[in-house]
Specification:
0% strand, single chain, disordered N terminus, AMED_5909 family protein, 100 residues, mainly alpha
Length: 100
């Protein structure tokens, strides 16, 4: 049996309350603050992209003006990146390379 490695990321609250993420711009800012370093492990990057997908999906229900952008583009993009890393164990070396 292989040991599954988990990576702990901070919880990011989405909603309309104080200190909650309520807009797509706030989601981008919050995710930038918890983004792993360039030398982080594949597990750290996979966890980050899964968190980002969850945040963008949740914010799409709060920031209705950006619903389709948040859910249809950003959440899908981040989920695909997480799935790619999970399947291959490879983390793109640059954002240009990560356009898949």
């Amino acid at each position: 049996m292989t040991k599954q490695r988990t990576t702990k990321l901070p919880a990011l609250a989405v909603g309309t309350g104080k200190d909650e993420i309520a807009t797509l711009a706030q989601a981008h800012d919050a995710l930038t603050r918890v983004r792993p370093s360039s030398g982080a492990s594949a597990a750290q990057w996979e966890a980050f992209h899964r968190l980002a997908a969850q945040v963008y999906e949740a914010v799409s229900d709060v920031d209705r003006g950006h619903h389709h952008e948040a859910r249809g583009y950003w959440a899908v993009r981040e989920r695909r990146r997480a799935e790619h890393i999970a399947a291959t164990g490879e983390v793109p070396s640059s954002s240009w390379e990560a356009s898949w």
